[in-house]
Automatic annotation (TrEMBL):
The keyword Cell membrane does not apply. InterPro entries: Mur-like_cat_sf (IPR036565), Mur_ligase_cen (IPR013221), MurCDEF_CellWall_CoF430Synth (IPR051046). Keywords: ATP-binding, Ligase, Nucleotide-binding. GO terms for molecular function: acid-amino acid ligase activity; ATP binding. This is Mur ligase central domain-containing protein. It holds the Pfam family Mur_ligase_M. Residues 112-239 form the Mur ligase central domain. It comes from the Bacteria. It comes from Acinetobacter haemolyticus.
Length: 245
């Protein structure tokens, strides 16, 4: 089941949120982390924090969307017909829904990572596939867990392909969400050392990016750049020599 009602979401997430039961059978049209493109029966994940972020909730409600939030200001709202759903953690419910959608989807899931070219490859591939099929893809450069999970949530009955740009900005930032993605095709582009950033060593950066390989589904396909393949070989050979020594 890929097209979900609010009751389905309640059961999948094992949540006990407050919401008027008259909305339970409303089918969600779209899941979003942005308010600008919302419409009636969409579901907005309010992930921002702070007083100013409350304006996003108000804007989403004016557009007829439902809102999932952990914002304390809305915690005490009673069953008054409001479309605000309070949960302890927006991230956890987003994760559970993404895991569910991925578990029941049997189409192709392409995950793309590397230091350069991710967005270009994602955009070109999505455009080509969209000519003959329904494609879900990450929006813009939203390649962290938030954008990845939201894209997975938008898989529906018509979807044939999912194309995800997956980024890494520190230890665990790719290796954790890529397990949820469980790609059938992994694309590992060139890795640029200037992106070492928050990684203790170059090896840590390369292995974080390479987690896209280990996450492949059984009989999945790997497309890897020649330069990155050589980097991995050199690191593995170096580690083997140290082990033997």
């Amino acid at each position: 089941m890929l097209d979900l009602t609010l009751l389905d979401i309640l059961e999948i997430s094992k949540s006990s949120f407050k919401l008027d039961k008259k909305y339970y059978n409303n089918k969600i049209s779209k899941f979003s982390i942005h308010v600008d493109n919302l419409s009636t029966n969409d579901l907005y994940f309010h992930w921002r924090v702070g007083e100013e972020s409350l304006l996003f909730i108000d804007k989403a409600l004016r557009k007829g969307a439902f809102v999932i939030t952990s914002e304390e200001k809305y915690k005490k709202i009673e069953l008054d017909g409001s479309k605000i759903i309070y949960v302890p953690s927006v991230k956890k419910i987003l994760l559970k829904l993404a895991q569910y959608k991925r578990s029941v989807f049997d189409g192709e899931v392409v995950a793309i990572t590397g230091s350069v070219g991710k967005s270009s490859i994602k955009n070109m591939l999505s455009m080509i596939l969209s000519m003959n099929a329904h494609v879900i893809y990450t929006v813009g450069n939203e390649n962290a867990w938030l954008g990845i999970y939201c894209a997975l949530c938008n898989i529906n009955q018509k979807t044939k392909y999912v194309v995800l740009e997956t980024g890494a900005s520190g230890l665990g930032t790719l290796s954790t969400p890529i397990k949820v993605v469980s790609p059938t095709i992994s694309v590992l582009l060139d890795i640029n050392f200037s992106h070492q950033g928050k990684y203790p060593t170059i090896e840590d950066l390369i292995f974080e990016k390479a987690s896209i390989i280990g996450a492949l589904r059984l009989k999945g396909k790997l497309i890897i750049s020649y330069n990155t393949l050589n980097m991995l070989r050199n690191i593995l050979n170096k580690n083997m020599c140290q082990f033997k020594g």
